[in-house]
C-alpha cells in the first residue's frame, strides 16, 4: 500500500483555483491559450499554429506525469472557468521546470503565483531532493516576479538559447544549489 501513500494527490485546491492533471479532454482549452499570440509576446515563435502542436504538448505532459509522479496542471477557478496551464515538469537534467501560461483575461490577479506555490509544495513532496528551477527572458518581468515570489533565486543571466530581440537575455532561477551538469543544461536551454 506504500505506493498509494506516495502517489501525489490528483486534484489540488488552492484558495481560488482547482489544479488537475492535464488530460486529452483539456486540449481545446489549452489550444485556445497556446495559440493566442498575446501569451507569446516575449517569444512569438513559440505560438501554437495548429492543434496538433497542442496535442503533442498535452501528450508529453501526460507522459511526464506518468513517469515522474507529477506534471503540469490544468488550472481552473473554483467555479470551473479555464485559466490556463501551470506547474512543474521533469526535465532531462533531472530538475523540475516551473512554468505557466494563462489566458490574458486571468492575468494580474495573482493566479500564477498561486499555481507556483502549489507546484513547489507538490514537487518537494514528490521528490524532495530534486531542485525546482525556472527559465525566463529578461523581457518578461511578470514571469520573473512569479519565480521570485515563489522563493526561487536568480543564478544566471546571459545569452538566450532562443532567437530574441537584441538586448534580451535568458535567466536561470532555482530553489537551491545545482549540480554542475544541471546548471550547464539549464544555461544551454535558457
Ligand atoms: C507570466 C504570467 C504567467 C503571470 O501570470 P499572473 O497570474 O498575471 O501573475 P501574478 O499575478 O501571480 O504575478 C505577476 C507579478 O508580476 C508583476 N508584474 C506584472 N507585470 C510586470 C512588469 N511589467 N514588470 C515587473 N513586474 C510585473 C505583478 O505586479 C505581479 O507581482 P506582485 O504580485 O508582486 O505585484 C502571465 O502573464 C502569462 O501567462 N503570460 C504569458 C505566458 C508567459 O509569459 N509565461 C511564462 C513564460 S517563462
Number of helices: 6
Strand content: 15-25%
- Report the C-alpha radius of gyration, rounded: 16 Å
Q: Which whole number gives the mean pLDDT?
A: 95
| Helix and strand composition category | alpha+beta
Helix content: 25-40%
Q: Strand tally, please?
A: 8
The shape is globular
Spatial order of strands in the largest sheet: 1-2-3-4-5-6-8-7
Q: Major sheet, described briefly?
A: 8 strands, mixed
Ends distance? 40 Å
The ligands found in this model are:
coenzyme A
Q: Unreliable runs, pLDDT <50, ≥5 residues?
A: 1-7
Oligomer: single chain
- Topology order in helix (H) and strand (E) letters: HEEHHEEEHEHEEH
Keywords summarizing the entry:
190 residues, alpha+beta, eight-stranded mixed beta sheet, 6 helices, 8 strands, 34% helix, disordered N terminus, binds coenzyme A
Give a short synopsis of this structure.
With 190 residues, this protein is α+β, with helices and mostly antiparallel strands. It has helices at residues 2-6, 27-34, 51-68, 111-126, 141-149, 180-188, and strands at residues 12-13, 17-21, 73-77, 82-90, 96-102, 132-137, 153-158, 170-174.
Polypeptide structure, described:
- It is a single chain.
- With 190 residues, this protein is α+β, with helices and mostly antiparallel strands.
- Helices cover 34% and strands 24% of the residues.
- The chain contains 6 helices and 8 strands; from the N terminus they run αββααβββαβαββα.
- The chain has an 8-stranded mixed sheet with strand order 1-2-3-4-5-6-8-7, with helices on both faces.
- Strand 5 (96-102), helix 4 and strand 6 (132-137) form a beta-alpha-beta unit.
- The longest helix is centred in the first third of the chain and has 18 residues, at 51-68.
- The radius of gyration is 16 Å and the shape is globular.
- The relative contact order is 0.14.
- Mean pLDDT is 95; it is low at 1-7.
- Coenzyme A (COA) binds next to strand 5, helix 4 and helix 5.
Amino acid at each position: 500500500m506504500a505506493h498509494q501513500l506516495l502517489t501525489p494527490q490528483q486534484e489540488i485546491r488552492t484558495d481560488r483555483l482547482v489544479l488537475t492533471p492535464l488530460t486529452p479532454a483539456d486540449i481545446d482549452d489549452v489550444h485556445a491559450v497556446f495559440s493566442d499570440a498575446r501569451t507569446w509576446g516575449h517569444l512569438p515563435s513559440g505560438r501554437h499554429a495548429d492543434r496538433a502542436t497542442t496535442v503533442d504538448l498535452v501528450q508529453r505532459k501526460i507522459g511526464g506525469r506518468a513517469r515522474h509522479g507529477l506534471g503540469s496542471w490544468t488550472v481552473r477557478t473554483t467555479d470551473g472557468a479555464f485559466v490556463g496551464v501551470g506547474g512543474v515538469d521533469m526535465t532531462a537534467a533531472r530538475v523540475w521546470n516551473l512554468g505557466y501560461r494563462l489566458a490574458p483575461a486571468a492575468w494580474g490577479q495573482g493566479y500564477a503565483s498561486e499555481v507556483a506555490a502549489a507546484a513547489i509544495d507538490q514537487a518537494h513532496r514528490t521528490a524532495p531532493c530534486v531542485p525546482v528551477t525556472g527559465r525566463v527572458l529578461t523581457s518578461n518581468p511578470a514571469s520573473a516576479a512569479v519565480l521570485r515570489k515563489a522563493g526561487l533565486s536568480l543564478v544566471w543571466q546571459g545569452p538566450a538559447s532562443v532567437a530574441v530581440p537584441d538586448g534580451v537575455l535568458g535567466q536561470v532561477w532555482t530553489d537551491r544549489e545545482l549540480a554542475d551538469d544541471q546548471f550547464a543544461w539549464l544555461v544551454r536551454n535558457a
